[in-house]
């Protein structure tokens, strides 16, 4: 497992009973996590949560605010700064486990010794976009949600990266890639972090297991003659790291010589010393 263990302003304090207790800067949140199926004792720290997300029996849920006098704040990771704001879907606007992938991509870009263009699909609030831009790449940021793209632009401004060569695109990812193929645009690296299920701006339905192979195969057509990496991430428990590695192998690897790898990614849990699994990543990279 690859572990995002370089955070200073975020930590998973403890996990138990379907919940994780997290520190986001100076705010402590308790949020549900379906993978936490153990019921270890919850100590006094759990009472310090400023807010807890409560699921509703009818679906969805809401935040139970205990002692929080702000609805948004910022945290940083190295040179990157992110706006954090608890949403109605339990999320905060950032997946901190992705830092391990940001570090990988930034290092590859810095060591490439050439200009690198990156296509970030399902780009959310821009963690990967900012990491790649800060490392010196040109980035095309694509997400179907106008609100998430604006959030990413806010993060770029917070990180003083808003003057970097970043294209901000609100579009269905598949349709955008199809247009890029027709336009003849090419990229040296692709990163995608698709949801298990979602809808595009035109109501397009996305189901990961049914569509991920076709999308990856399509994306091969927008890779340059000398790709640097292709990174695929998933939170879908039914899609194992090995399955995603296989997909990259028979698509990207069938056309370009490189190295394949895959693994779970996770976050360290302070109270136990164990690691909370937070999804899987498969990578094809240039030799």
Topology:
Elements lengths: L1 E2 L6 E7 L2 E6 L2 E6 L18 E5 L5 E5 L7 E5 L2 E5 L14 H13 L5 E5 L5 H8 L3 E6 L2 H13 L7 E5 L2 H11 L5 E4 L4 E3 L5 E3 H12 L9 E6 L6 H15 L2 E11 L6 E12 L1
Parallel strand pairs: 1-16, 4-5, 9-10, 9-12, 10-11, 12-15
Antiparallel strand pairs: 2-3, 3-4, 5-6, 7-8, 13-14, 15-17, 16-17
Report what the structure shows.
The protein is an alpha/beta fold and 287 residues long. The chain is built from six helices and 17 strands. Helix 1 packs parallel to helix 2 (127-134). An eight-stranded mixed β-sheet has the order 1-16-17-15-12-9-10-11. Strands 2-3-4-5-6 form a five-stranded mixed β-sheet, with no helix packed on it. A two-stranded antiparallel ribbon has the order 7-8. It is globular.
How much strand? 25-35%
| Strand elements, count | 17
Note poorly predicted spans: none
Helix and strand content put the structural class at: alpha/beta
Q: How would you sum up the global shape?
A: globular
Work out the radius of gyration: 19 Å
């Amino acid at each position: 497992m690859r572990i995002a263990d370089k955070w200073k302003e975020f930590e998973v304090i403890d996990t138990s009973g379907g919940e994780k207790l997290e520190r986001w800067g100076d705010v402590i949140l308790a949020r549900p996590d379906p993978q936490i199926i153990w019921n270890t004792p919850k100590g006094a720290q759990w009472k310090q949560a400023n807010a807890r997300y409560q699921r509703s029996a009818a679906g969805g849920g809401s935040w139970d605010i205990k002692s929080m006098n702000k609805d948004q704040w910022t945290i940083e990771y190295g040179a990157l700064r992110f706006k954090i704001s608890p949403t109605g879907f339990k999320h905060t606007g950032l997946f901190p486990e992705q830092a391990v992938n940001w570090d990988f991509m930034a290092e590859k870009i810095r060591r490439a010794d050439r200009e690198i263009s990156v296509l970030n699909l399902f780009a959310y609030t821009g963690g990967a976009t900012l990491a790649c831009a800060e490392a010196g790449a040109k980035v095309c940021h694509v997400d179907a949600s106008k609100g998430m793209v604006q959030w990413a632009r806010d993060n770029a401004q917070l990180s003083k990266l808003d003057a970097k060569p970043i294209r901000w695109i609100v579009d269905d990812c598949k349709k955008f890639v199809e247009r890029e193929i027709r336009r003849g645009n090419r990229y040296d690296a692709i990163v995608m972090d698709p949801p298990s299920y979602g809808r595009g701006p035109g109501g397009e339905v996305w189901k990961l297991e049914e569509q991920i192979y076709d999308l990856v195969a399509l994306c091969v057509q927008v890779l340059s003659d000398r790709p640097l990496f292709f990174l695929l991430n998933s939170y879908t428990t039914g899609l194992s790291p090995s399955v995603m590695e296989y997909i990259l192998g028979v698509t990207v690897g069938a056309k370009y010589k490189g190295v394949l790898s895959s693994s779970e990614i996770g976050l360290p849990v302070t109270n136990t010393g164990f690691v909370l699994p937070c999804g899987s990543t498969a990578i094809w990279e240039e030799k």
